């Protein structure tokens, strides 16, 4: 009897086997369809300018809104996943993305494009991508790290294929028909979502369906009603609502960690500042190359080169940074990658020949691989894992703000000066200053902590304060992963 029950429980676990690998394949496609999609927007930059008679600043708002919503919609996606599950969120995101791009093909002004392709498609991509990554945590326990690493290759595939497809379709049928086709392609996110069926426990209840009583603030709202009073006092009711709102903000936006944790504070400020210049080459590289006489097809190939190299370099960077020799030092590797990314922009300033731009793309791709592989590993190093989800919520919202305003401000500078070199000057300044700020600040913080610890260690018993390297017990496979983790990829 017990053997039969054990066999039934084992059969009820789909983790790390069977259908889980189909879900992983769907996650790879999702990341290519969502995170990889903004990489092709630079191909349409010049055509959209001519179509709507828009300036560089006005045109750059369209990809800026898309990327900002894609990164900053994490808390909203989290609420959606907790209410309806990952499958629903992915399919809803695919529907929004498709509708957004189909609507974009009928736009009559650049401002309409902000709403359709920017807001609607960006929000749909956010739902599909983040819910798709979340479901991997339910389907994989033992191989979760490998699954996430393999899924991230979808981003690089998207970076490689989207620009090439975009340039081909643009040459053959124009940007409006291309956007219409893109709407149909993005609807495939719904197919990927259909594959991600809810994980079932042995009891038959979905693993990823939350209980209503577990929602933040529920107990706080019900507490006054349980004291026997027919209706709570208005002031008490208002105070209870404020407490519930505070608990929700505490869960999804970790302001307390930002105020108390110096490492998290430095890292969040540094990455937020970095993001203002990080996206600039992706948006302006193609129009810059075209302006300097590079053929349109070859200019679109530049973005594909970045994505193709990312396919191989990003996993290697992730494996290298995971070595124990870099434990506690990943922030310095991250700062070095940001510094290299900033310095590489000077290659474009020196020469705009196609051969030099290829060299630039190779170096930029290597630096981007380091940034993409280390961004969330460093965040895990500076924040306790039980608060990682809420810390990441604030982190993504702040970086989405600078992702939103960075390209339009730089586009305004280009409009005033009529010189695309300022794109790369501005990007270099922001990236290099962010790298120096994070590296030097963490170095000073580390020295301060060492001095503080040294002052507390008694001379007669130094071994008492030695670091304990005994590994903790691994998490049981029967336990579910954190309810929702906002994950973005750079």
From TrEMBL:
Q: How does it sit in the membrane?
A: Multi-pass membrane protein
- Write down any Gene Ontology CC term: basolateral plasma membrane
Disordered: region residues = 205-238, 460-482
Matches recorded under Pfam families: MFS_1
Major place of residence? membrane
Q: Which domain of life is it from?
A: Eukaryota
InterPro entries in the record: MFS, MFS_dom, MFS_trans_sf, Proton-linked_MCT
Q: Which keywords has UniProt assigned to this entry?
A: Membrane, Transmembrane, Transmembrane helix
Q: Where is the Major facilitator superfamily (MFS) profile domain?
A: 20-451
Identify the PANTHER family for this entry. MONOCARBOXYLATE TRANSPORTER, MONOCARBOXYLATE TRANSPORTER 6
Q: What is this protein called?
A: MOT6 protein
Its encoding gene is what? Slc16a5
């Amino acid at each position: 009897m017990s053997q039969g029950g054990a066999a039934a429980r084992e059969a009820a676990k789909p983790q790390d086997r069977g259908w889980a690998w189909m879900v992983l394949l769907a996650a790879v496609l999702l990341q290519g369809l969502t995170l990889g999609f903004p990489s092709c927007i630079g191909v349409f930059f010049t055509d959209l300018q001519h179509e709507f008679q828009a300036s560089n600043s006005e045109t750059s708002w369209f990809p800026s809104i898309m990327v900002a919503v894609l990164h900053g919609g994490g808390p909203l996606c989290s609420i959606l996943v907790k209410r309806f599950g990952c499958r629903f969120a992915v399919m809803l995101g695919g529907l929004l993305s498709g509708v957004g791009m189909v609507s974009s093909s009928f736009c009559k002004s650049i401002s309409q494009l902000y709403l359709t392709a920017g807001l609607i498609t960006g929000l749909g991509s956010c739902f599909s991508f983040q819910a798709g990554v979340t479901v991997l945590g339910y389907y994989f326990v033992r191989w979760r790290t490998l699954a996430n690493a393999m899924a991230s290759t979808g981003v690089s595939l998207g970076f490689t294929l989207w620009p090439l497809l975009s340039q081909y379709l643009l040459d053959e049928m124009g940007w409006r028909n291309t956007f219409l086709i893109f709407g149909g392609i993005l609807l495939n996110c719904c197919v990927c979502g259909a594959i991600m069926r809810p994980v079932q426990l042995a009891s038959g209840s979905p693993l990823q369906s939350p209980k209503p009583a577990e929602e933040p603030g529920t107990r706080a709202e019900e507490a006054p009603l349980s004291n026997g009073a027919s209706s709570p006092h208005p002031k008490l009711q208002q105070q209870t609502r404020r407490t519930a709102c505070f608990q929700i903000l505490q869960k999804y936006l970790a302001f307390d960690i930002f105020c108390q944790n110096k490492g998290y504070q430095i890292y969040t400020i540094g990455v937020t500042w970095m993001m203002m210049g990080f996206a600039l080459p992706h948006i302006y590289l193609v129009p810059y190359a075209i302006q300097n006489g590079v053929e349109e097809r070859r200019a679109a190939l530049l973005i594909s080169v970045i994505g193709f190299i990312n396919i191989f370099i990003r996993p290697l960077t992730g494996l290298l940074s995971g070595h124990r020799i870099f434990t506690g030092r990943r922030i310095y590797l991250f700062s070095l990658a940001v510094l290299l990314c900033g310095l590489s922009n000077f290659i474009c300033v020196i020469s705009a020949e196609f051969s030099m731009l290829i060299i630039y793309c190779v170096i930029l791709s290597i630096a981007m691989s380091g940034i993409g592989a280390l961004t969330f590993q460093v965040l895990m190093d500076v924040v306790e894992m039980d608060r990682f989800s809420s810390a990441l919520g604030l982190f993504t919202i702040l970086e989405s703000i600078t992702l939103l305003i960075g390209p339009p401000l730089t586009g305004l500078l280009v409009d005033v000066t009529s010189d695309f070199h300022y794109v790369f000057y501005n990007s270099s300044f922001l990236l290099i200053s962010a790298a120096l700020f994070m590296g030097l600040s963490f170095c000073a913080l580390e020295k301060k902590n060492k001095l503080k610890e040294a002052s507390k260690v008694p001379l007669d018993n130094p071994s008492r304060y030695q670091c304990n390297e005994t590994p903790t017990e691994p998490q049981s496979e029967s336990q579910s992963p954190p309810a929702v983790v906002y994950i973005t990829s750079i």
